[in-house]
Amino acid sequence: LDFSFCSRVTYEGVNSLCTEGLKYLIGLQSLELHFFSCDGITDGALSCLSKNGLKYLKNLTHLNLNFSSSKKISNKGIIALASEGLPSLPVLTSLSLGFQSCGATDEGLSVLCSNGLKKLPWLASLELDFEYCGGITDEGINNLCLHGLKNLIELKDLNFNFSRCPQITEI
After folding, report:
1. Are the CB atoms for 33 and 49 separated by under 8 Å?
2. What is the pLDDT of residues 56-84, one digit of tens each?
3. What whole-number distance in Å separates Cα of residue 70 and Cα of residue 14?
4. Is residue 107 within 8 Å of residue 138, measured between CB atoms?
5. Which residues pair with residue 66 across a beta bridge?
6. Which of 137, 14, 144, 139 has the alpha carbon at shortest distance from 70?
7. How confident is the model over 2-50, as pLDDT tens digits?
8. Is the overall model pTM greater than 0.90, yes or no?
9. What's the 3-state SS for the chain?
């Protein structure tokens, strides 16, 4: 489902998608949701998706979420996804997350590693896009490499995009 550039999509729409749609798709194996540059999408919408939508999708093997350029997404939403959404997906093997130009910092990336990726040992493909996230530093990247990838013993494909993050100086 692609809602890119839909500035009027808000928490209420995401809540309806979860409670009146995803809730009934318990056999779903692949889900792609794109909210690229949606001005009405907030941390609350991402939290709602994490708590009220993903928890029903126990058979999901592929997840692609794109919140890039949605300016109201910050650590709070990323932490909800990492703490409540991703751990509820026991057979997930492919994950793509787009948070380009969002308010992500090392804190959100750290929780994504410790609470989200850590609980996905069967992940074979991982793509993270945090391009233009000014709050990501060398410390966040080191934490991702040292702790986020440690338990991903099945990982075969890896793609990170941290370009144009001004606080990253070296690895």
Report:
1. yes
2. 999 999 999 999 999 999 999 999 999 99
3. 14
4. no
5. 34, 98
6. 14
7. 999 998 999 999 999 999 999 999 999 999 999 999 999 999 999 999 9
8. yes
9. CECCCCCCCCHHHHHHHHHHCHHHCCCCCEEEEECCCCCCCEHHHHHHHHHHHHHHCCCCCEEEEECCCCCECEHHHHHHHHHHHHHHCCCCCEEEEECCCCECEHHHHHHHHHHHHHHCCCCCEEEEECCCCCECCHHHHHHHHHHHCCCCCCCCEEEEECCCCCCCCCC
Residue labelled with tokens 């949606």 = 38
**Residue in this structure with the two tokens 């991702």, named with its chain if needed:** 144
> At residue 165, what is the residue type?
C
